[in-house]
């Protein structure tokens, strides 16, 4: 018995000695070769432009929002500002924000393609809007917030675009969501049925436009993005607090009331406004949304204990699926045939593909909430594959094989920012 106790004690002591101590972790961060490579590669890639990646001609606001801070490392303030102004010049009559823009000469109308948007305010670019998603307005507010914080250019808010200032246009875009994407019953914004944060709806072979077959629903990603945007807007423009602070609090309360599954400690994928598009025998709530959960944490919706539970679930899902990182969009994926778009097969694209673009955001939130060791462990496969594949690929298969654009700037942006956060931690005494 005594010998057994001694052995157990020795094993326990050995286990304690193998655990990463704080000084060790700080040293590892400072000397991590993958961090160094990823930072240098991110700066090289972002120097080459503002489109989402080499597979895209457009500048998308949901992407630009995630690499504008990285762009600020290599581009002058005026260039960053001009990109933001294009979105404001192409803002529609009801306040809505376009999804992306492209040079006018490249905006060739084709059957079944984008319906391009032109305005007198913007002579050089044409816009388009993926109407199934509800994150364009919120992405622009967040991008402006990051731009102002990074550059100190507060005067930008008073710059006139047509008959409105940038500040007025920001609030106008939030009004659009209340006027045209608002559920009175739930006190939340709605969108079409997509996979987590994705912008491809369940119906139509392409799936980017609302159609007669669209099924409207509430989800965590859109509403968490709105909370972040409102918080950003109220900080940038304090005069908006009187109107928007009560709305903000209501959205936060309603998000947890209607979308948080207390029993299973997870977000419900969709709350439908007019019925689910999926078969009655399909239990959609078995699906765990990784990306939307990460953004919900950024919005401050989850406690530290709930964040740890969420991380544990993500790690379990990665093991169960065989995926490469917690950037796994969701687990399990939607069954074959759930989406008409052929790219949305199980573990394909947004239906269970592994996206660093969102996995990196989870890393940032883990660091921010004090889970630095856990963040470091989960960051490793993301930065390793940057070096292994010599690039920032759009997404990875369940077998960790790269897919899509190899210069996906959104992934570069979120990883670069996460590494800066690690370095800040490592340099504290």
UniProtKB/TrEMBL annotation:
Keyword Glycosyltransferase: yes
Keyword Oxidoreductase annotated: no
SUPFAM superfamilies in the cross-refs: Six-hairpin glycosidases
Protein name: Glycosyl hydrolase 94 catalytic domain-containing protein
GO BP term, pick one: carbohydrate metabolic process
Lineage: Bacteria, Pseudomonadati, Bacteroidota, Bacteroidia, Marinilabiliales
Keywords per UniProt: Glycosyltransferase, Transferase
Annotated Glycosyl hydrolase 94 catalytic domain residues: 49-389
MF GO annotations: glycosyltransferase activity
């Amino acid at each position: 018995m005594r010998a057994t106790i001694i052995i157990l004690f020795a094993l326990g002591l050995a286990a304690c000695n193998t655990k990463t101590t704080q000084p060790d972790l700080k040293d590892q961060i400072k000397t991590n070769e993958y961090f160094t490579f990823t930072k240098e590669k991110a700066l090289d890639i972002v120097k080459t432009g503002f489109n989402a990646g080499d597979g895209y001609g457009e500048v998308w606001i949901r992407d630009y929002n995630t690499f504008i801070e990285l762009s600020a490392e290599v581009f002058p303030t005026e260039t960053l500002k001009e990109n933001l102004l294009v979105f404001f010049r192409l803002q529609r009559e009801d306040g809505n924000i376009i999804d992306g823009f492209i040079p006018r000469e490249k905006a060739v109308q084709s059957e079944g393609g984008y319906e391009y948007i032109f305005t007198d305010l913007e002579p050089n670019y044409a816009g388009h809007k993926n109407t199934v998603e509800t994150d364009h307005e919120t992405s622009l507010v967040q991008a402006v917030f990051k731009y102002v914080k990074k550059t100190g250019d507060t005067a930008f808010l008073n710059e006139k675009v047509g008959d409105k200032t940038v500040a007025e246009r920001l609030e106008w875009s939030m009004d659009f969501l209340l006027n045209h994407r608002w559920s009175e019953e739930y006190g939340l914004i709605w969108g079409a049925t997509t996979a987590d944060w994705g912008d491809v709806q369940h119906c139509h072979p392409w799936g980017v436009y609302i159609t007669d077959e669209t099924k409207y629903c509430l989800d965590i990603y859109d509403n968490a993005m709105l909370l972040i945007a409102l918080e950003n807007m109220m900080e940038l423009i304090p005069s908006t607090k009187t109107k928007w602070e009560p709305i903000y609090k209501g959205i936060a309360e309603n998000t947890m009331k209607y979308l948080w599954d207390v029993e299973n400690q997870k977000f419900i994928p969709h709350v439908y406004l007019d019925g689910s598009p999926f078969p009655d025998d399909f239990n959609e709530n078995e699906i765990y949304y990784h990306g939307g959960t990460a953004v919900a944490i950024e919005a401050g919706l989850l406690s530290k204990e709930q964040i740890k539970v969420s991380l544990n679930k993500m790690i379990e899902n990665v093991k169960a699926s065989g995926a490469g990182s917690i950037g796994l969009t969701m687990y399990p994926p939607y069954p074959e045939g759930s989406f008409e778009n052929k790219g949305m097969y199980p573990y394909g694209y947004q239906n269970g593909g592994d996206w660093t673009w969102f996995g990196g955001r989870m890393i940032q939130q883990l660091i921010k909430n004090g889970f630095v060791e856990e963040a470091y462990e989960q960051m490793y496969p993301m930065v390793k594959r940057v070096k292994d594949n010599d690039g920032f690929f759009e997404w990875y298969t369940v077998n960790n094989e790269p897919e899509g654009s190899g210069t996906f700037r959104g992934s570069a942006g979120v990883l670069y920012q996460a590494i800066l956060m690690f370095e800040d931690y490592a340099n504290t005494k």
